[in-house]
Amino acid sequence: MDMDGRDRSKSRTLQPPTADYLDLISNLASPKTFLFHPPRSTSRSHPTPAAQSTTVAPSTTMDKQQPSSFQQLEKLGEGTYATVFKGRNRQTGELVALKEIHLDSEEGTPSTAIREISLMKELKHESIVSLYDVIHTENKLMLVFEYMDKDLKKYMDTRADRGQLDQATIMSFMHQLLKGIAFCHENRVLHRDLKPQNLLINKKGQLKLGDFGLARAFGIPVNTFSNEVVTLWYRAPDVLLGSRTYNTSIDIWSAGCIMAELYTGRPLFPGTTNEDQLIKIFRLMGTPSERSWPGISQLPEYKPNFHVWIS
């Protein structure tokens, strides 16, 4: 990937973090009562690096399309820099998701859009939403994605039992989530905003990572990043404490929070502020100290008078 200066002609090798995630994936092998059929490439044994890097081509080729090639059907959501519509390819009839970027006449294309496009053109995997095409006209930028029926938050909200899912479904979703995270990290990409709203599900029960607007490429040594990442409830404690040298653990913490929410039907740490979020984490897991977390007292937001909870 050009953004991090690496030579993509060289063969990739699994880094230690990725190997750990694959161990987790293996432990989440589908039970006999598996609710959904797993993707064909899913294996109970550890995937090889080559298999893990396999490119999954989109079902439809949409080269050199125009905005008029698509029919907007309904608005799915609106954010700070984009509006997402359910759409249809007028030629093929295929459903797609159309992400219209809000362009500023003075500032041009938002950096989040540039980042998302550059990363998603590289990340091709069965557990990551496919970017089919990028349509850029004089006054409009539109990203064409594969269509997914709903996000994980809406999926849980529609459950009559307060969002709680059965064991087979949880194992299926976590298996796919960890595969997607492992692939991102193998390719030196941090998602940085994993939450139920950014995990998309289709009618086949496939779960895929979406919304890479906050994602970043990373290298070795670990770069210095902004600490304004990840929705508060899924934000790792080192980020809450002001660390700017976080690594792949930021996504794994979010995944753990999501797994707990799948089991209970409610957020694990629903804080209202940074400090409240830390209090909720420390109350459940214990207040860290220099002994349990060397260097914590040097973090910008560390307070020596934190209440001491013992896990």
From TrEMBL:
List each copy of the Protein kinase domain by range.
Answer: 70-311
Query: Could you say which residues bind ATP here?
Result: K99
Q: What class of enzyme is it?
A: transferase
Q: List, as start-end ranges, the regions of compositional bias called Polar residues.
A: 50-66
Query: In which domain of life is the source organism classified?
Result: Eukaryota
Task: Quickly give the catalysed reaction.
Answer: L-seryl-[protein] + ATP = O-phospho-L-seryl-[protein] + ADP + H(+); L-threonyl-[protein] + ATP = O-phospho-L-threonyl-[protein] + ADP + H(+)
Q: Which Pfam families does the record associate with it? A: Pkinase
Quote the EC number: 2.7.11.22
The UniProt GO MF terms for this protein read: ATP binding; cyclin-dependent protein serine/threonine kinase activity
One Gene Ontology term, aspect cellular component: nucleus
Where is composition skewed (Low complexity) in this entry? 37-49
The ranges of region (Disordered) come to 33-66
In the UniProt record, does the keyword Iron occur?
Answer: no
The family assignment reads: Belongs to the protein kinase superfamily. CMGC Ser/Thr protein kinase family. CDC2/CDKX subfamily.
Which protein is depicted?
cyclin-dependent kinase
